[in-house]
Amino acid sequence: MDALDVSRWQFGITTVYHFILVPLTIGLAPMIAVMQTVWHVTGNEQWLRATKFFGKLFLINFALGVATGIVQEFQFGMNWSEYSRFVADVFGAPLAFEALVAFFMESTFIGLWIFGWGRLPRKIHLLCIWLVAIGVNASAYFIIAANSWMQHPVGVTWDEARDRPRMTDFGAVLTNSTTLAAFPHVIAGAFLTAGTFVAVIGIWWMARNMWRAKKLAVAIDTGDNSEMPKATAPSHIDATPEDLEHDARTLWRPVTRFALWVTIVSGLALFITGDIQAEIMFKQQPMKMASAESLCNTTESAPFSVLSIGRQNNCDAVHDVIEIPGMLSFLATRNFDSTVQGVNQLQAQYEEALNMPGQNFAPNLFVTYWGFRAMITWALGSVVVALGGLWLTRRKRVVESRRFATVCLWMLATPFLANASGWIFTEMGRQPWVVAPNWENNLDPLRIHMLVQDGVSNHTAPTVWVTLIGFTLLYGALGVVWFMLQRRYIIEGPATYDAIPPDEPSDTDSDEPQRLSFAY
Questions:
Q1: How confident is the model at residue 312 (pLDDT cuts 50, 70, 90)?
Q2: What is the DSSP letter of 95?
Q3: Which of 24, 92, 118, 246 could form a disulfide with 502 if both were Cys (CB 3.0 to 4.6 A apart)?
Q4: Between the CA of residue 175 and those of 248, 252, 305, what are the distances in Å?
Q5: pLDDT tens across 139-165, in order?
């Protein structure tokens, strides 16, 4: 592989890795803010325990997200310097706002939230976590605005003196139609991830507590210590069967039900916003959407391909097995009988309009086709958790099935994989463009665009290989740290002393409330 190939692999690997952490941060911060608000309003100390417990998991994820996100900034200048020069007048503005407004805001108030327990007034402390939640979502908006400009450049004119686009309307960049469609979709995906994350942990703890309560009751009745279940944390060693069942019903069931409804609502929002975004993409990037369906030729009443076999990266190998007649036309134009342009015809149009004969303007058909379907399929894992969890917790019931809890643990990875698949489809589907032409607004397509091979720095392949290998090893180590920390604190569970309000005196005979556990 040459320097371009290795640079693309490096950016793809680091971006996908970073975005494993991002959706959980975006969705979990508002959920923790809601948990703390419920405690603040009701005084129910179980919600305080939930706030502190999931707050630790959030902070682990946030810290690793910051560490991996910094790499993204450096790559723009190091591996993609020509791209950075080309988009500097536009791309820098939303990223600067992301740093100055959003990142500084969330970083400041997350520090106040971590160290403010018992030191800040309750209302001020609650405000801190809400400002963190606003900050992480504002950060997402500015970054999506920057990315959306690459998908659909607006608010610019061509600067002849500097031979690059010059921003003339920052408001147009921030209110890009692509941004307004993509942002709700990304946020819905983040809430789907966070909702599933909280729900799976709650279901696992409910099932575990109920199982341990039964085993412990049998051991007490029979006096058989061999039946005594193993405690999951020091604070649970002296727990009685009544304590365990009480936690399952008063802590884990309400938190899990809250997370399950977040999952359901965000899943519906994903469906609606995804449909809106797809309709816009048919107008702005028709080649991407034609490739997502491997629609090689312009078709009237085009069908939606549900499944195909024998697919390779060319139109000659397309063999659809299951398809829905007219559905692709409806998704594109809201008309079952409309005509949808195919890859071959779009290729000819692009060559003529851009005066680039021989340039391949179609992305990898295999990646776009299956990336789109992987995104949808992986999201169904959250549906399994949500519907099963709501059914098993109906009418004040709690989850007792360890088998279902195990299934949910396996489903925990699916929303993360769905988010990753969606971004792979979005970014790979834009190829060969790093800045796609704006056909919709009739900006000069010969000027306001950039092919990916024109954006890479003038490095040798071995130079990029060194950093690619280094980042892979570093990210692998960070991934182990992330997993081990999350696993440790999930298994440890909420501490019993977390139920003590931070601004009230605790038992002076115990130093447990003063112990530092990761963050507070």
A1: low
A2: H
A3: 118
A4: 46, 41, 33
A5: 999 999 999 999 999 988 888 888 888
